[in-house]
Amino acid sequence: MLHFKKGLGWKACYDDEKNLYTAKTSWRGDFDLYEIDAEIYNQLDEPDVDAWELIGSGRHLYYSQDSPIGPPTDMVIDENYATLCSWAEIQESGNIMPDKLTDIAVDLWENEETREHRKEQKESKNKK
User: Fold this and answer.
1) Average of pLDDT values for 50-66?
2) What is the model's pLDDT at position 91?
3) 20 to 30 Å CA-CA from 118: which of 17, 57, 103, 107?
4) What pairs with residue 35 in β-bridges?
5) Of 21, 3, 5, 41, nearest in space to 84 by CA
6) How many angstroms separate the CA atoms of 1 and 8, rounded?
7) Taking each helix axis from N to C terminus, what angle separates 112-127 and 99-109, rounded to the nearest 10 degrees?
C-alpha cells in the first residue's frame, strides 16, 4: 500500500510493501525525484520544517528542467528512477543530458550518497 504526504510543490510516498520512501519536488519548470529515508519522511509534516531542504538531502534520482533560460533538459541520475517512483507522474522533456555531462553534474552538485550510488551503478553496468 502507498502512503502519501503532500505540501506546496512536493509530494512524498512510502511504499510499505517495498519499504521504500521516495519524493518529488516541482516548481516553475523544475522537477526532481529523490529516494529518502524514514527519518526524512516522518519529519515532513512537522511545523517549522523546510520540506524542500529535507527532501533535497535524500538521494537524487532524476531532474528535469524546463525554464526560459535554455532548452528543456532531463538528467537521469539513477536509471531506475521510474521504477522507484512509479507513483509519480514524471515530467520528461525528451532531451536527456549525455551520461558524461551527468557524471560531471553529479560530481559537482550532488551529495555523497547520490555520488556513491551513481558510481556503484556505473561499475556494475560496466562489469556486465
Assistant:
1) 95
2) 85
3) 17
4) 22, 59
5) 21
6) 23
7) 150
DSSP-derived pairing of the beta strands 73-76 and 10-15: unpaired
Tally of residues, the chain: 128
Q: Which residue has the cell 531506475?
A: 80
Q: What is the pLDDT of residues 77-120, one digit of tens each?
A: 999 999 999 999 988 888 999 989 898 888 888 888 888 988 88
Separation CA 128–CA 17 (nearest Å): 29
Contacts of 67 by beta carbon, 8 Å cutoff, 6+ apart: 28, 29, 30
* Segment among 19-33, 45-59, 108-122 with least mean pLDDT: 108-122
What whole-number distance in Å separates Cα of residue 123 and Cα of residue 33?
A: 22
| 22 pLDDT more than 80 | yes
Nearest to 81, CA basis, from 102, 50, 108 = 102
Residues of the chain with pLDDT > 90, as a percent, come to: 62
User: Is 20 in contact with 84 (CB distance < 8 Å)?
Assistant: yes
Question: Which cell is 76 given?
Answer: 537521469
CB 117 within 8 A of CB 32: no
